[in-house]
């Protein structure tokens, strides 16, 4: 498994062990962040509870527990298909966010994987979408129905792939929104779909000119 032999920075660990916090939610979120969202909150709570909520001991227990022969799926973010960084969106507007992702590993993904909201702004009620199992090196588009916040400003949220057993994997993928009155969402979504239709389909046959 990637990262099994990585030495955790002792200064970083000392910093977190000195937090002295007894707030379990804070410890869970810190543990999850230190593991790069590799584990869901319930899994984090399991290891923390096992070590009397000692963050440093819990991380050690996690790495001791994780067997090196566990094959973790791989996922790489390729590009934003709709709503690229810097595009403006009007407040309270429904939109579809689409990312292009790739199985960058040597094995097919297990069945039952999904893309989950993991942090930041959520943009609506959807916090998970199922994703089909991709073959090695296969690329696919994943879309989530979202709604922009009611106030103008910059917003961002993070999403991540997750197995049916709760193991997070691959790149953290972002939604970065600029909410402005008079934003050009309608136009940009139409342009994006037009470009996707005509520019990203190399297998499309164009009829030869006479």
Automatic annotation (TrEMBL):
Gene Ontology cellular component annotations, sorted alphabetically = nucleus; phagophore assembly site
The main location is: cytoplasm
| Key words of the record | Cytoplasm, Immunity, Innate immunity, Nucleus
The GO terms this record gives for MF are:
ubiquitin binding
A single GO BP: macroautophagy
Q: Which InterPro entries match?
A: C6orf106_UBA-like, Ig-like_fold, Nbr1_FW, UBA-like_sf
Describe the location of the Nbr1 FW domain by residue ranges: 82-179
Keyword Nucleus in the entry? The reply is: yes
The places in or outside the cell where this protein is found are: Cytoplasm; Nucleus
Indicate yes or no for the key word Signal: no
Quaternary structure note: Interacts with IRF3; the interaction inhibits IRF3 binding to its DNA consensus sequence.
According to its UniProt entry, what is the function of this protein?
A: Negative regulator of innate antiviral response. Blocks IRF3-dependent cytokine production such as IFNA, IFNB and TNF. Interacts with IRF3 and inhibits IRF3 recruitment to type I IFN promoter sequences while also reducing nuclear levels of the coactivators EP300 and CREBBP.
This protein's name: Protein ILRUN
Taxonomically, what lineage is the organism? Eukaryota, Metazoa, Chordata, Craniata, Vertebrata
């Amino acid at each position: 498994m990637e990262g099994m032999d990585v030495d955790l920075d002792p200064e970083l660990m000392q910093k977190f062990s000195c937090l002295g916090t007894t707030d379990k939610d804070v410890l869970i979120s810190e543990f999850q962040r230190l593991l790069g969202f590799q584990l869901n909150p319930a899994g984090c709570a399991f290891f923390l509870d096992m070590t009397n909520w000692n963050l440093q001991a819990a991380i050690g227990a996690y790495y001791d527990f994780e067997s090196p022969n566990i094959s973790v799926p791989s996922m790489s973010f390729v590009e934003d298909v709709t709503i690229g960084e810097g595009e403006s969106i009007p407040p309270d507007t429904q939109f579809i966010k689409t990312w292009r992702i790739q199985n960058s590993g040597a094995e097919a993904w297990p069945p039952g994987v999904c893309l989950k909201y993991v942090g930041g702004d959520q943009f609506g009620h959807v916090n998970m979408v199922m994703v089909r199992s991709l073959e090695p090196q296969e690329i696919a588009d994943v879309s989530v129905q979202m709604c922009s916040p009611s106030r103008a400003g910059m917003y961002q949220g993070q999403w991540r792939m997750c197995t049916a057993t709760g193991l997070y994997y691959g790149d953290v993928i972002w939604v970065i929104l600029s909410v402005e009155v008079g934003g050009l969402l309608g136009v940009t979504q139409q342009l994006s779909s037009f470009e996707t239709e005509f520019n990203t389909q190399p297998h499309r046959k164009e009829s030869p000119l006479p």
